Amino acid sequence: MKILVLNAGSSSQKSCVYEITGNTLPEEPLKPLWEAKVDWTHQQGFAELEVKTAKGEQLQEKIPADSRTQVMAHMLDTLCKGSTQVISQPSEIDVVGHRVVHGGQDYRESVVITEDVKQAIARLAELAPDHNPANLEGIEAIEQHWGTLTQVAAFDTAFHSHLPDAAAIYPGPYEWVEQGIRRYGFHGISHEYCPKRASRILGRDLASVRLITCHLGNGCSLAAIKNGRSIDTTMGFTPLDGLMMGSRSGAVDPGILIHLLRQSDNSVDELAKVLNKASGLRGISGISNDMREIREAISQGNSRAQLAWDIYVHRLRSYIGGMLASLGGLDALVFTGGVGENNPEIRAAACEAFAFLGLKVDHEKNAHKPVDIDIATSDSSVRVLVIHTEEDWEIACECWLLLEKKSA
Ligand SMILES: Nc1ncnc2c1ncn2[C@@H]1O[C@H](COP(=O)(O)OP(=O)(O)O)[C@@H](O)[C@H]1O
Ligand SMILES: CC(=O)OP(=O)(O)O
Ligand SMILES: [Mg+2]
Q1: What's the pLDDT at 44?
Q2: Per UniProt, where does substrate bind (predicted)?
């Protein structure tokens, strides 16, 4: 079965083609036949496209980013044409799997996309404005360019859909519960993949390990994992809650929002834009949402970049502390996502606060681009893992399972 996966994040569009043969799913992620990444934010006005194939072909292009759909169409063309071609026509793809960020109350597992599903994704766009519209664009781009193919939605909210009520319900009026205003949690595809990988690295049964998964990308969230399930998480009703992020504020006193809305020159839309696009690392530093640029500015003595870093670290530590209490103990702390996987300083800074528990990082291992390994010292009381998240592989597995079930 050939599966194309489209994973639209807030700063990137990642895409992969996998070929799964045989009648069971492999335990380890397969190497994609073709993978592409579009980075939307690295250079103003341009998108950077990188394509790689299993055969070793590579392509790097800088394209004007005026229209996301055009960039997507161009990316899809590299699958069927030119040096990175891996299929001769779209009909060779059996199914297209999409990461869909908000699935609301109704979508607690992956589904085959129908008109109803598309309408629900569009309806929920208000709650995930940086994601659901891009997810829908991906679905529509396939329909427009490739015609009718089976498409599947894998929801970021699904893995958190069994959160205990005490963690899921906001202490507003009870009517909120009836209106579906609750903590949904996001990055669920990554928070589900990482514990499975962690249990293999640790050589322990998933049901016996207590984990905190720190997904630190452009969006950032933590999840507390017990018995392989999410029992607490930092993102909420929308992907704005919790940790400080690239350009999102994370949790702020709701009184600030009331105060700003009372000032007549602030509209709801402006406020939404400020919280989603002009806050977080970008808002505080005035430089960028990208952690690489924040680190660079700190090395040049920029005090606002330093402040942005300090707040990011403070919040990360304090939310890890919260997850620790929800779990009542911890076997391993897991770092993943663009920042979690690539930034040794953030891992060291987060872990330092838990040294009193006997958690110790091996600084040599931490510094040397760790991938899917334990970076704690042998005498550390808690393991510390760096895991390359394989959201795309997890989505491909969901597609395979759904189609196998349908054909059984
Ligand atoms: N080498 C690196 N060092 C530090 N941060 C990095 C590095 N590579 C990527 N990042 C960070 O990862 C972020 C993107 O994370 P990613 O998980 O890919 O994002 P998305 O939210 O789009 O899925 C970038 O904004 C950047 O801050
Ligand atoms: C939900 C979310 O914030 O996703 P991303 O980090 O990919 O933007
Ligand atoms: Mg992401």
Answers
A1: 72
A2: 99
Q: Amino acid identity, residue 167?
A: A
Average pLDDT, the chain: 95
CATH code, 2-155: 3.30.420.40
CATH topology of 2-155 equal to that of 203-386? yes
DSSP code string of 216-245: ESSSEEEEEEETTEEEEES--SSTTSSS--
As a whole number of angstroms, the distance between CA 89 and CA 184 comes to 38
Domain boundaries, the chain: 2-155, 203-386
DSSP 197: H
Tokens at 240, concatenated: 């704005």
pLDDT at 117: 98
**Which CATH entry fits the domain spanning 203-386: 1.10.3720.10, 3.30.420.40, 3.10.20.310, 2.60.40.420?**
3.30.420.40
Q: Which of 317, 284, 315, 316 is CA-nearest to residue 298? A: 284
How far, in Å, from the CA of 273 to the mean position of ligand 3? 20
- Residue among 14, 186, 281, 394 whose CB has most ligand 2 atoms within 8 A, to mutate: 186
Give Rg (Cα) of the chain: 21
> pLDDT at position 42, please?
63
Rounded Cα distance, 278 and 274, in Å: 5
Closest CA to 274 of 300, 291, 256: 256
* Ligand 2 surroundings by CB, under 6 angstroms: 9-10, 101, 131, 156, 186-187, 217-219, 239
Does the structure's ipTM exceed the value 0.95? yes
